[in-house]
């Protein structure tokens, strides 16, 4: 049943947290790292880096907003004959702005990638997992809060958190762990593309540290992995204060 190598599949692997998690998993003995994202050139550069270190790596250029890509990924795993030791669902994006002014294309695309793709890929790959496998879903500290101006993005990340916690219990009897990573603001390209205002550099997390904690704590079977001061503050606020109050407090960020 087990092949000579097991797979570590990382989506959104062309940069940021995904690339850094790939760098960490490449060092684990017996793993073949699959990098999955749209940007082939960046993944090829990353693959060359991994191969220079003696790692086994494969690049899959897939647009995960397209359901055909979910089927293709499942098919490639099946054809490989290998088991999935790690599934890291990192692919996702966000845009700032009121829901009513956000384009339907970006709104529907965000739901498709952040929610539907994550759930479908996970469901498709669970049959290829075994005891000791890990599912790591990259959520966000915004999952704990309703945030006007980032309403849809926050809602998609709340889904990721809730989905992870429920699935964790469902898969417990099979020895498969599920972890939700809830970082605060991380130094990635996210701020360049989302239109969101980055906080003070004092509170920006380093992607390498976020990736390290994601892998280390997931390996320890931790359910919710919180990184950074702002992430902890969001969780505490979300646990202690009514969501209606939190939404009103956050309304100062609402675009006019």
Report on the architecture of this protein:
- There is one protein chain.
- The protein has 256 residues and is of the alpha/beta class.
- It has one domain: 3-Layer(aba) Sandwich (Rossmann fold).
- It contains nine helices and seven strands, in the order E-H-E-H-E-H-E-H-E-H-E-H-H-E-H-H.
- It has helices at 16-25, 40-52, 67-80, 104-125, 151-171, 190-194, 207-219, 229-240, 243-249; strands at residues 6-11, 31-37, 56-61, 84-89, 134-138, 177-183, 224-227.
- Strands 3-2-1-4-5-6-7 form a seven-stranded parallel beta sheet, with helices on both faces.
- Helix 1 crosses helix 7 (207-219) and helix 3 packs parallel to helix 4 (104-125).
- It is globular and about 55 Å long.
- The mean pLDDT is 89.
